[in-house]
Specification:
mainly alpha
Length: 73
């Protein structure tokens, strides 16, 4: 009687290239690892620069919501 050997396969680890599938470009990941202080500064400045655009969008959506709510009544 021939008996087949069954080996349990170890769970596969996520590859380093999975960061690309998550939407984070590889150069950004490498830059964060290589130059953490510079990237933190650059990302902070980008965040502060984009705050007014987010606030404008929020106010626009809030006004549209109030208008739809008033029309529904």
């Amino acid at each position: 009687m021939i008996r087949a050997s069954v080996r349990a396969h170890p769970p596969q680890r996520a590859a380093a290239s999975d960061a690309l599938n998550d939407g984070l470009p590889l150069p950004a990941v490498v830059s964060i690892i290589t130059f953490p202080l510079e990237m933190l500064t650059a990302m902070s400045l980008l965040y502060i620069t984009l705050l007014p655009f987010g606030m404008r969008s929020y106010c626009r959506h809030k006004a549209e919501y109030k208008q739809r709510k008033a029309e529904a009544m």
